[in-house]
Write a structure and sequence with these properties.
It contains eight helices and seven strands, in the order βαβαβαβαβαβαααβ. By secondary structure, the chain is of the alpha/beta class. The chain has one domain: 3-Layer(aba) Sandwich (Rossmann fold), CATH 3.40.50. A seven-stranded parallel sheet has the order 3-2-1-4-5-6-7, with helices on both faces. α1 links the parallel β1 and β2. It starts with 6 loop residues before the first strand and ends in a 7-residue tail after the last strand.
């Protein structure tokens, strides 16, 4: 799974799965471009990589805006000359409400970041990879891409859409030397998951966690690093025949 002399771009690289994946890319030899809306968090990821002897640059961007997306793509190429791996990861959770009560502005925001952001990443990164005739994209979907969790209408809709974009892109660029896959994490202990727990039950978020643990065959939550290793595998030459796939990383949650 060596990424030696390769360049990886990670959106949402300031925290959670994105942060862990930036570090994993760097540890396998890649130069890393960390993209995040939160400048302090993104810079902290870069410093963590550099502290381990890796190479990294930070670019602040809001992934729902095409000008920002073009800027991080151009910035990555300017910094390191190419893009070999693109982890199209930035996303938000929205709120937890029944559809009839779901705020329209929150729905629009979730779709803008989670769907439009992934679409724009594909739109502007794929031409670089196509021109190189090599490269891999990994989009962050979710186990919510496969079922309809109550109260998470916007989030589930956005993650279903990401699988659609992944499959379309894989079909369009597979013969051009480029692979596009998705990772579908289950409950992973990240700030996003903690926020969802509080949204679901403000008085007792621990009850939400206990409920998920009771339904998970592994009996535990995943760690960001466990997703990161799968992302780096999919980006590496070890996964050279994997295209258009949706990899669940959920401890067996969808199996029961």
């Amino acid at each position: 799974m060596s990424m030696e002399n390769k360049v990886a771009v990670v959106t949402g690289g300031g925290s959670g799965i994105g942060h862990a994946t930036c570090l994993e890319f760097a540890r396998t030899g890649a130069k890393v471009v960390v993209v995040d809306l939160n400048a302090a968090a993104g810079a902290a990821t870069v410093e963590a990589i550099r502290a381990e002897g890796g190479m990294a640059e930070f670019i602040r961007a809001d992934v729902q805006h095409s000008d920002d997306v073009r800027r991080y793509v151009e910035g990555a190429v300017a910094a390191f000359g190419r893009i070999d791996a693109f982890f199209n990861n930035a996303g938000i959770e929205g709120t937890v409400r029944p559809l009839v009560d779901y705020p329209e502005d929150v729905f629009d925001r979730v779709m803008a970041v989670n769907v439009r952001g992934v679409f724009l990443g594909l739109k502007y990164v794929l031409p670089i990879l196509i021109a190189q005739k090599t490269g891999a994209v990994i989009n962050t979907a979710s186990v919510s891409s496969f079922y309809g969790p109550s109260g998470l209408g916007a989030y589930a809709a956005s993650k279903h859409a990401i699988l659609g974009l992944t499959r379309v892109a894989a079909g369009e660029v597979g013969r051009l030397g480029v692979r596009v896959n998705a990772v579908c994490p289950g409950p992973i202990l990240t700030p996003l998951w903690s926020a969802l727990e509080k949204e679901a039950n403000r008085d007792n978020p621990e009850a939400v966690r206990e409920g998920f643990l009771a339904r998970n065959p592994s009996g535990r939550f995943g760690q960001p690093e466990e997703v990161a290793r799968v992302v780096v595998f999919l980006a590496s030459d070890a996964a050279s025949y994997v295209n258009g796939a949706a990899w669940t990383i959920d401890g067996g949650r969808l199996a029961v």
